[in-house]
Write a sequence for this structure.
């Protein structure tokens, strides 16, 4: 993992953790607020993921291609979420779940065999499991989704921070 990738993971992790804490602190948030928070998370996550693999030369070519494609798709889902913040809760659930699923799969696929891969695979598994849970139970209410989403954002944020710090410590300045 390059220093740029380490800093990007750290920044994305801090951002996700802040959004998770905001979602916990604001349990009475409206659908529009939730749409903006989760849309911003997907957009930032997608841009960071695409940038990491676009500008990191030490990853295998296949992993870089998968990382960039999934990053762009996650970013596009974030834009879709931001464009339709007044949409239904079920649409928001599906968009967020697909974003987390793509990001989690990208994290898993690109982490296999890399340094710090264990943390990154665990981070990807958390995102994939959260997305599967949301897709399996699409009848979640807004309060349940906020609680579930905030918990996921906090875990993913903490995992991103750990991965970022590990990446920064693994390479000399």
């Amino acid at each position: 993992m390059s220093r740029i990738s380490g800093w990007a993971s750290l920044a994305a992790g801090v951002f996700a953790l802040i959004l998770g804490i905001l979602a916990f602190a604001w349990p009475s948030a409206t659908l529009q607020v939730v749409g903006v928070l989760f849309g911003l998370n997907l957009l930032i996550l997608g841009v960071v993921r695409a940038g990491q693999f676009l500008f990191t030369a030490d990853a295998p070519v296949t992993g870089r291609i998968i990382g960039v494609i999934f990053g762009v798709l996650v970013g596009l889902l974030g834009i879709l979420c931001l464009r339709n913040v007044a949409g239904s809760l079920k649409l928001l659930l599906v968009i967020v779940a697909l974003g987390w699923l793509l990001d989690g799969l990208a994290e898993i696929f690109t982490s296999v065999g890399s340094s710090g891969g264990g943390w990154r695979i665990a981070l990807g598994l958390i995102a994939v499991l959260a997305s599967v849970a949301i897709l399996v139970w699409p009848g979640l209410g807004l309060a349940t989704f906020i609680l579930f989403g905030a918990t996921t954002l906090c875990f993913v944020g903490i995992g991103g921070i750990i991965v970022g710090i590990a990446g920064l410590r693994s390479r000399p300045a």
Observations:
- DSSP finds six helices and no strands in the chain.
- The chain has one domain: 3-170.
